[in-house]
Amino acid sequence: MASERHRNHRATTAPPGIGPFDLRPLLHGVPLSENGDEEDIQINCVEYLDGNLYVGTTASELLHFFGIPPDPADSNQNPTFILASRLKPASSDTNGSSNGSRPGVQQILLLPRVAKACVLCNSTVSFYSLPELSPVFGTTVRNCNWIGGVDLNEDLTGPGHDKSGSVTILLHLNRKIRVVRIGDDAPRVYRTIDYAGSTLSVRRDSFACVADSRSYALVDIDRQLKIPLMSISSLDDSQPGGPFGQAQNIAGPPDGGLFRSASTASPRPPTDAHGHSRSTSLGDFISRGIQRRQGETEDPVFQDTDAPTPTRSPAPGEDGPNRAQQNRSPQPQAVSAAQAAGANPPSRTMSPARPETVLLKPLIVSPTTEEFLLVTGTGPLDPGIGMFVNLDGDPTRPTLEFDRYPREIVVDGGLIDPSSSRPSLGEAEEGYVLASMAKELEDGLHNGLEIQRFDVNVGEDEPEKWWLEVDNTVSNEAPGNTPIGIRSLLQSEEMHFEQIVQRLCQRRFSPFRGQSTTPTVSLKSNDSRTALSLQRLTQEQELFNRDESDDEVLPPEWETNRNKEGEDFVRRLAKTSSRLAVWAGANIWWAVRNPLLVQLEAALDAAASREQQSQPTTLETRLRIFSLLETIKGREPKMELEFLTLGYIKQRASVMLLVAFLTSTETPFTEGQTAAMEEHLLDGDLDARVVLSLIPALRNEIIVSRRGIWIYGGIKTVVEEYISREQDGLENQGVSSLASNVLQFLRRFLTATRKKKGFGSVSDEVFRTVDASLLVVLLELDKETPLGQLGRSGSVRKELYDLVDHGVDCFDRAVDLLETYQRLFVLSRLYQHKKMAGEVLATWRRIMEGEEDKGGELGDGEQRIRSYLSNISNQALVQEYAIWLAARNPKLGVQVFADEKGRFPGFEHGQVVALLREEAPDAVAYYLEHLVFGKGNTAYVNELITYYLDIVITDLQSSEETREMVAASYEAYRALHPPKPTYLRFLSDNTPPNSEVWQSRLRLLQLLSGGHDYNATAIRARIDDSLSTIPQPNGHEDSNNNGVNTLRHQLLVPESIILAGRARQHRDALRLLVHRLGDYDTAVSYCIRGGAALSPGSRNKRRDSDSSLPPTYEEQVQLFKSLLGEFLALEDPEERVERTGNLLERFGGWFDILEVLEVIPDGWPVETIAEFLVSGLRRLVAERCEGLVARALSGTENLRVGFEFVERVREKGAVVEYPEGGRGGGNGGEEEGEEMIHGGDVLGGESWGEYVQAGGRLGG
């Protein structure tokens, strides 16, 4: 078959491609001539029922073919038809015309409900039984123009509405229409309608659209009503002047509005007077209450009132049907006129102003239950117009235009059309009109079918039409010389589309070249940038196979069985039915709806040349494919096959675009086209591994399970065709060979594909492949990122981080890729997602120990490790890397052990100290500092002091420069003018920040002066022993009164002062403060506070020993006395006088004037100690006055106490107690021995003074 789209402007509702119909062979080589010697015999009509094919020919023969079903195992075979009988129906030749001028078999009407067939042959109707066509009823009907009028709303194969099981048909006679019921008994006339010259009718319920040779009309066969509609030819002015579109009562007398003709001369019964009234529609006319005629009876047999009458010329004013009777039927006349026009095609010119009237063949079909489609025109070579009217005669839709007046028309589909040949994959409301006509094309006249939609409103656009021709190579006739007939058959035939089965059936696909079976895991090429060692890949493959075999054991021939199941499944969907028969010459075809897949795939084939169907590289081809995808974008499938079809077309078109994208170098894709291609690839749900198989550099990343990759067969063919054309060795070029736009496309496509994770329809192998490929692409793109730059929003590095941070399904492959690309920091992030803390730390350690990390993102690795250790709970792992970190950075390492907020269990202090001593000795001091200063743990004070002391002494022993710096610091401090800071503050302000020795000395001084309980004696001995080997520097002799002269007092002065204070050797401490440091204020403070004066902020510190207790007053007096002696021993006379005078003036209260005068040199002027002497004398006078006042106050107090005593005695009285054997000399009773003596009687006034003198005591 050949097909051509014939349109000027494509409708937006239809996708581009071939037409919606195709021709499939029904029966080729019909034996039209019994002897084979007649070549001008043609097929007039065709009918089909239950595998029986009935063909009527112009030779007045009815051929019956019986169909033999094909072998069920071979789905490609068609039924085979054998000739069962050749029948010559009864016919009449009243005009004595030759056999060649007779129409032959004009109509075959099958009535399966009653198992009867009505055949119209040469204007004679015969009746036969089904299916063998045996004559029945023994009667015929002559002078019949048409037989039909079966109610299209009923299913003839079902029981129908009539309880008797009969079927009602219409016989169009020359003078009337007879409504006949056919059942098992003889046909009976149910009603007779006066309608002369009718040649065609189509009925819906009781409404029939009837045509004669010149006009159309609507007839209510039950109520005998008629609505004239329109003339068949718009140039026909022979019709009477009555109005069209108004209902007429065709049951009335001659004056009742009927147009009389010779065929309606029989008498009529009178009608109601209302029959003369008119209405605008048949429905209005019915609503007026016109009643059915009463007294109608069925004729038991056909009457002879329609016997043939002599042919005569029509009288003036008579109707057109008489003119049609001259040739026995208008059908041959119309056909012959069209054939004559086709045999000698004139050029299309405008008709003259008053053209001769040409009788056109009436054409009526019913697209829906409420509509009729009528065709009008001006001539057989002029365009035809199709008009839709409803049952009231009103227009319902926009008109249709045919390029030429059709020979035949049929409708297929539409809304609720039981006669539709719509396949299972079409839309429910698609309605088509197929018109047989001859069309003049560039190479001459062609006969074919013009196809267009009738159920869409294209507006101002030109409607889309398709042109379908038969394959003239089958009919062995020259193109254009074979008229085409078409008819809608009674019964449809089911058929399958093997093309759809081959396209949509799932097939196993191997993405690797030269492999008949897909490997479980693809072996990476040794030359690939992302290749692994062959040994490791082999191990992975064996592991994968072992896991697969444990989970599932594939049965034998499982692939063959799956292919068969898939074919059976698609074959059940890819079937359709057709009831449209098309014939030309001696060949008959089915007119089958083209499935949506066939139409769209043909559009793809048309978009690319046949040589480049899978590689459309031109811009025009690319745009056509995009246009096709836009037409189906967002289309919601209504059935399963349509869902599969849309998915397949999207996938195939997307693959073609991808191939073009990969191969188009002269006309590269724009950004918009690339984005559209990505969208269509994702929308088509194509397995991402198929996309990657088209890119050799990433093909090695594809992972396939034992069951393989299953895709549509059509997609498999396209992809394999492209892969087969590849050059050898492309797989070994690596990802770096890909263009930047390809890498960016893969980046976006694979990222979008990863969002489908969790969908049950996508296998795990897909995501393993996608993750590995995306990682390779991002690693390749990230090479351009500057070294050390972290992931910014929207950058490739940020996407790379997101990929590994959210986890990948191909973990082992990702590790290998990152190792290959030397991206260790990214590898550590991958381990972090898997919570593999040991691998994370090991990777960071590799970077810090010098292994190359091409990203350079680690930054401060030590700090990163320290922070990470706080967030893990594995104590052993924390211990391992904390020690390693302490060996590199003692401070950070100690912070890990000292961290109390970490998730790991805490370490024991002794354990940590032991570990650090063994593995990281340099970190011991920092940990001890944490314990002593941070935690207040004094158990390690001695150890920490020893550590600091070792550092200081070692440096003093080994460095002359250090000794000089120490001595210089003392000189500098002594040179300061008062008031000056303490030496500890002075040392803190002037210590180099990066000097470990000086920082250690500061920490040593802090510990010694911090009030901690430590062994001062042992420390002093350690210092003396360590410094004894250092030679004595010249000019630094310092002998105290006790003969002490040690290097400790020369180099470690503040330490010696603190230790002397702890040992309560106050004279040594004061001497060093005065003479070695010149720190006079601290010396004075020492006299008042003792050793606490050497500790900054010591007032709020606890006292751990008696040495830190403040001195008593007596001790303070002695300390001041010692300090006075040290001031008097100063070498500088001025400083000696100044310091001594200042001390005596400020703290003279602790000195005795006589003792001071004894030690003050006689040569000093009095003014030096004048203030001291004045204050001392004032103090003495004040003390004497205070003594007098105190004595006077004491006397007064004594008088007061005596007075109170006397008063109390007077109140109480006195009791005289006699000793045993006293007065009376006997053992008298108590009453006799006691005598109350009043005070006044005992103590007279003269004796009070004696009492006072005696101290207030009363003797007895």
From TrEMBL:
<dbReference type="GO" id="GO:0015031">
    <property type="term" value="P:protein transport"/>
</dbReference>
<dbReference type="InterPro" id="IPR001180">
    <property type="entry name" value="CNH_dom"/>
</dbReference>
<feature type="region of interest" description="Disordered">
    <location>
        <begin position="1"/>
        <end position="20"/>
    </location>
</feature>
<feature type="domain" description="CNH">
    <location>
        <begin position="40"/>
        <end position="461"/>
    </location>
</feature>
<dbReference type="InterPro" id="IPR032914">
    <property type="entry name" value="Vam6/VPS39/TRAP1"/>
</dbReference>
<feature type="compositionally biased region" description="Basic residues">
    <location>
        <begin position="1"/>
        <end position="10"/>
    </location>
</feature>
<feature type="compositionally biased region" description="Low complexity">
    <location>
        <begin position="329"/>
        <end position="347"/>
    </location>
</feature>
<keyword id="KW-0963">Cytoplasm</keyword>
<dbReference type="GO" id="GO:0034058">
    <property type="term" value="P:endosomal vesicle fusion"/>
</dbReference>
<dbReference type="GO" id="GO:0016020">
    <property type="term" value="C:membrane"/>
</dbReference>
<protein>
    <recommendedName>
        <fullName>CNH domain-containing protein</fullName>
    </recommendedName>
</protein>
<dbReference type="GO" id="GO:0006914">
    <property type="term" value="P:autophagy"/>
</dbReference>
<feature type="region of interest" description="Disordered">
    <location>
        <begin position="234"/>
        <end position="353"/>
    </location>
</feature>
<keyword id="KW-0653">Protein transport</keyword>
<dbReference type="GO" id="GO:0005737">
    <property type="term" value="C:cytoplasm"/>
</dbReference>
<keyword id="KW-0813">Transport</keyword>
